[in-house]
Predict the 3D structure of the following.
Amino acid sequence: MDAARLKQSWAVVAGHGDQVPLYFYSTLFLAYPETRQMFPTNMAGQRDRLVSALGHIVSHVDQVDRLVGFLRQLGADHRKFAVRAEHYPAVGEALVETLRHFSGDGWSQELAADWVAAYGLVARVMTEAAQAAEAHSPPWWVAEVLTHEQRTFDVAVLTVRPQYLLPFVAGQSIGVSHPAVRSWRYYSPANAPRADGTVELHVRAAPGGAVSSRLVYGCAAGDQIHLAAPVGDGLTLGRAGSSDLLLLAGGTGWAPVKALVEQVAAEGSGRRVDLYVGARSRMEFYDSEAIDKVAASHPWLRVSYVAGSDPVRPGEPVRVVDRVLADGDWRSRHVYVCGSDEMVGHTVAALTGAGYQPGQLHHEGYGRHWYGPAWRTVTAPDESGGAVTR
């Protein structure tokens, strides 16, 4: 298996953009129509995820240890889509045909053999991981919605109780789906693990989001939803050791940060924690009562609210990171950032430009395209004052 040849081949194929996943799924569903029911009705997001996953696999094909870890998590996670070992050959056939189609004159027997070998490794590792996962966790947990609170027009806070304990760590994300929707979305619980096993979810309805819209507008106490195994460690406190913390949250990015605050309180470690909570306007601080209660209960926690548009000072938009940098030098602390892709990207770039080191900046890059341990693309200033994407 020639890693360089595979990377060059994928670069050519990926250059055809959206045509690649469209051709792949068309080929798969025509040849194996029974696989269509495993996918959501709206395939737009699924097409993006396919390309992201393939790109990640090919870019790390020469880093076997790193790739195998990714594939194991991917294989275990795919159980929630009812993927079984017998589905892998069908996917492999459609994939090789897609690669052949878009490679044009560059396709050869050697390249075909490389791709077959690469996919064979992928299928084997994912299948073995799925089989191993069966021994300790189900494909998903059924959970009852205990409470559903509509906090703003597009934000709801749900408390759910899985039928049996779903283990997770504060800062991780769990898959969430509704039985009426064949899609999954990842959310970070807004609590550290509780003795009663309940999970608090903060959900903003995204435009066109089948799962988020169902959870915000079409869900009520007594309903059932599905939860998948936790993923990710980018926002977990283990990475910070015993250091003091600076926490930056934007919108519903407050959820995992709230869980971190709960964990610090439970540990009784004596850390100093400064929390900055941002929203587009004062009206959108949807969980301020809980924030104020936590701040009043813990003297080691200091809270600052940052409204992006302040009616007192119209025309002066303020970002959370601008307020943070204006308030002081926090470079002795570990910094956790959670919010929209735009908020996280801008924040990390601004902190990096201000001299903060990558090892002290913690964030996740899951969003709606999560496919295992991926990396968020962040534009940060380089040494010449320009920008570099990494």
